[in-house]
Amino acid sequence: EIHQLVIALDLPLYIRCEATRIFEDRETALCMLLRRLTYPSRLVDIEMQFGWERTRFSRITHITALFLWTRWKHLLRFNPQRLSREKLAHFGRVFSEKGAPLDVVVGIIDGTLQKNARPVRNQRIVFNGWKHMHCLKYHAVLSPDGLVIHVYGPVNGRRHDETVFKQSGLSDLLDKHFWSPDGQPLYLYGDLGYSVGPHILCPYKGPVLTFEQKKFNYRMSRVREPVEWIFKEVNQQFEFLDFSRSQKILLTPCALFYMVALLMCNAHTILHVPQIPQYFSCQPPSLEEY
Fold it and tell me: Which residues are in the DDE Tnp4 domain (predicted)?
């Protein structure tokens, strides 16, 4: 799979650090990056285990992650070439077959907080008073084939989901691309943190709901839940991201590593077809198609 990923990711034959003139072949560089993200370890322990000198390991992993993000970030910014109107309409039918009362919901949107170590400066900016922790916030859109099709972030952990959505510019993408082949609007479904908009739906709110409204909320909750699973999968596959003491905003490229981890998680979904595509019975595309 490493050789398959190296080719699919279009990595150059050698990953070079121009400042120090060190380099590694692309297979080793990708293995270094995956080892860095997989589990939190001290660089000295990795050096003892694999023989990779710590500064060399750190530089190569950073450069490899930066290359992957620069080369493939458009895949996490919505790819209209793959996600055509016909494909989005197919997603709507998949959600409907799973129990959604509507066949125009084609994706699920939600935000997540990634806990960080307390910064030595400007702590208040990233402090979330609801969760009582220092963190960065991201929001993501999940399709029923288990792939993250849009990510925005990081923003400081104090921001509300609705605020992050407005900052992301996602509404412009929805207005441009979220239409069925016959011209009907398509929608994302979010939790109570979002407001109903031109291409956004959310549960019915209020202290008193009718039976039909409660039934709608219940049926939609069953198809909204997997967006929580994708955040769990990222942290399970790449536990380095879940070790807050290593996530030092002023010292570590936390956001870069998280975005690359999402990209790698999409690749893992394609290669192994885990829980989410099985839940929706929706086969993800091949690596080449993605």
Answer: 109-263
Say how far residue 197 (Cα) sits from the centre of its chain. 23
One domain for residues 83 and 34: no
CA angle 32, 35, 39 (to 5 degrees): 155
Indicate if 119 and 199 belong to the same structural domain.
yes
Task: Specify the pTM.
Answer: 0.93
CA distance 69 to 228: 23
Dihedral class, residue 281 (left if φ above 0, else alpha if ψ from -120 to 50, else beta): left
**What's the pLDDT score for residue 46?**
86
What is the C-alpha separation between 77 and 83, in angstroms, rounded?
11
Structural domain of 69: 2-74
| 171-216 pLDDT per residue, tens | 999 999 999 999 999 999 999 888 888 899 999 988 889 999 999 9
Q: 68 and 82, same structural domain?
A: no
Tokens representing 289 are 């198609």
Give the bridge partners for 113, in sequence order. Answer: 137
Q: Are 110 and 228 in contact (CB under 8 A)?
A: yes
